[in-house]
Amino acid sequence: MKIEHYIAQLLYRYQCVSVPGFGAFLTEIQPAQLLEDAFYPPKKQVSFNFHLKNNDGLLASHIALSEKITYEQAVHKIEENVSNWRTSLQLFQPIILKNIGELALNSENNLVFKPADAVNYLTDSFGLSNFVSPKIQREIYQQEVEALEEKAPIIFTPERRSRQVYLKYAAVFVLGLGAAGFFTNNYYNNYQEQIAAETMMVEKSVQKKVEDKIQEATFFIESPLPAVKLNIKEDKFSYHVVAGAFRNEANAAKVYKKLSEKGFKAKRISMTRHGLHPVLYGSFATYAEAQHAMTKIQKTENPEAWLLIQDL
Question: With bands split at pLDDT 50, 70 and 90, how would you rate the model's confidence at 120?
């Protein structure tokens, strides 16, 4: 079974999908871009971090639910895939993960990830694709017009005297039309002014009746409007740094008390389906804040601290 199909499904909904014992695939939202003549919609950029190897249970739970197998069987299948990937890398063979990207070792034996651009994991950009706009060639058209003007000069030809007689009669005819239009226009303007005056009188009469009706009306408010309650939505903290998960609840309480005394905003969350009691160093609103806090805690407090991404 290839697990990259299930990893791709989770990338649509989560910012971090961890493969236990191998690394984690991370997504970061990038805004729309304009590069030269191409427009690119907003998207999730996929990256890989080989330091995040802890099992947060997300991938295994998803595989178990999709394949209708137990959680332990899903973990075993993930371990088999990771073993095959490591063998391919030792043989300097690239790992091609469909719709996710390519993993390979470079000349310095460092793991390099090249993301695939075929799929956009940002659901808000569904239906949007890249668009290339052709350039508008305004300067070329202007040059062509100027070239045509140079090739086609304007030639003036004198008129003959015989046409002057016809021009006189045409002038008399135009003057007659102008006089007729003048008298017609005056009559039309007078008629329009009369209609406008009558319309204004009617509007004034209607307006007076409306005002009289408004003065006679009385408005009563029988009962006041109910008070409006505003529900202010609290910030969600979906990123948590985990100190440990304990089988004994008393041990979890001791660790929680110890972390609180040290100044951490420690938390205890509900028991998992495996009967464990997790204790958190704290919760954060963004992945960057949680990652920074986890790195600091791993250096100073607990090297085994790990990151949990979940809406509590």
Answer: confident
Record the tokens describing residue 257, joined without a space: 């008390």
> How far is C-alpha 14 from the geometric centre of its chain's CA atoms?
15
> Which of 240, 247, 312 minimizes the C-alpha distance to 280?
240
CA distance 186 to 178: 12
Q: How confident is the model at residue 124 (pLDDT cuts 50, 70, 90)?
A: confident
- Mean pLDDT for the chain overall: 76
DSSP string, the chain: --THHHHHHHHTT-SEEEETTTEEEEEEEE--EEETTEEE--EEEEEEETT-----SHHHHHHHHHHT--HHHHHHHHHHHHHHHHHHHHTT--EEETTTEEEEE-TTS-EEEEE--S----GGGTT---EEPPPP-HHHHHHHHHHHHHHS-----PPPGGGHHHHHHHHHHHHHHHHHHHHHHHHHHHHHHHHHHHHHHHHHHHHHHHHHHHHH-----SSPPPPPPP-PPPPP--EEEEEEEESSHHHHHHHHHHHHHTT---EE-PPPTTS-EEEEEEEESSHHHHHHHHHHHHHHT-TT-EEEE---
CA distance 278 to 50: 24
State how far the Cα of 115 lies from the Cα of 47, in Å rounded to an integer.
7
Dist. CA 186–CA 71, nearest whole Å: 96
pLDDT tens track for 204-263:
665 665 455 545 544 444 454 454 454 544 467 888 899 888 888 999 899 999 999 989
Residue 29: the pLDDT is 86
pTM of the model: 0.42
User: Torsions phi, psi of 155, nearest 5?
Assistant: -110, 125
